[in-house]
Automatic annotation (TrEMBL):
Cited InterPro entries: NERD
Domain called NERD: residue spans: 34-154
Protein name: RNA-binding Zn-ribbon protein involved in translation (DUF1610 family)
Domain of life: Bacteria
Length: 299
């Protein structure tokens, strides 16, 4: 199951409850596009994996070899390498970096450009760093598995002019064909390699920081997860999102409020009274406290 990063979740919550500056709205848009692209890739690769011994690790992050034991920073603050997809198939290790760009690009003389002529940061630099750092870690494991590092331009409506014929670049139009050739079952047992990778995997969500927005600055109420609009109380048991035409049980709404508070800031002590204030009085302190006692809600 692929999950949104904590930062992505924070921005979604704040978009409904706070006046985000333009650059953070842009960040949210990029995170949403990236997540959609990753889910699209999952849907394409899943039929090749289902029923096979192909290994697919999603959102894999690790600290580079040269950071461990040599940095004055804590592990929480040390830089990390993030891989959208790690796949072991046909006894090879593949990394697939997904790019869901809505704009066209031009490739010329080893550089990337927007259509207006402005230079665009090469996505291959990120792939090269991933190859270098992951290669060092695999070497440390004593693994000699052959590795292929690929960037996938997943948006079918994007055009890349003068696209170089490089094995490390796949566009949406030939993705299925490329996967058909690469996604074959493994002949050897790679459980030890997977175990070592899992040992080094870090939980990026755990390390992502709290928002700097104060509780008093947030709009209060219960908001729709789908459209971000404020829900209206239909009766004692249900909320309703009129634009979406969806009814939400009050218990689900309370769970969501508690989740939002924890995502936004871990230092906030989540109490029944705080949930009531966060809901703008729509969910009472008594309701929260009684359902905590019954085990239906967790603070």
């Amino acid at each position: 199951m692929r999950e949104k990063t904590r930062r992505h979740q924070q921005l979604e919550i704040l978009h409904a409850r706070y006046m985000l500056p333009a650059y953070e709205k842009d960040e949210l848009h990029k995170l949403e596009a990236g997540f959609i692209g990753e889910l699209e890739f999952d849907g394409i690769i899943e039929p090749f994996i289902k029923g096979s011994n192909i290994i697919h690790i999603k959102d894999y992050s690790f600290h580079p070899e040269d950071v461990l034991g040599r940095s004055t920073k804590s592990r929480e603050d040390a830089s990390h390498v993030q891989l959208d997809n790690v796949v072991v198939a046909k006894d090879f290790l593949y990394t697939f970096e997904i790019k869901n760009y809505s704009f066209d690009l031009i490739y010329k003389d080893g550089k990337w450009y927007f259509e207006n002529g402005s230079e665009f940061a090469s996505p291959l630099l990120q792939v090269a760093r991933q190859r270098d750092m992951l290669g060092k870690m695999l070497y440390g494991f004593g693994s000699d598995i052959r590795m292929f590092n690929v960037v996938v331009f997943i948006n079918a409506n994007q055009t890349i002019f003068n696209l170089p014929a490089a094995g490390e670049i796949i566009v949406r139009s030939n993705l299925h064909k490329k996967l058909s050739k690469a996604m074959a079952g493994n002949h050897y047992d790679h459980s030890r390699l997977v175990s070592r990778l899992e040992e080094r995997k870090i939980d990026v969500v755990k390390y992502q920081r709290d928002t700097t927005v104060e509780f008093r600055e947030l709009a209060k109420g219960v908001f729709c997860k789908g459209c971000g609009r404020k829900l209206m109380r239909r009766n004692r048991d249900w909320f309703r999102c009129a634009p979406c035409g969806v009814d939400i049980p009050i218990l689900d709404a309370a769970r969501r409020l508690i989740h939002e508070l924890k995502v936004l800031n871990r230092s906030w002590k989540v109490t029944p009274s705080l949930v009531q204030a966060f809901s703008d009085g729509e969910i009472s302190e008594f309701y929260v406290r009684s359902n905590v006692k019954r085990g239906r809600l967790g603070l």
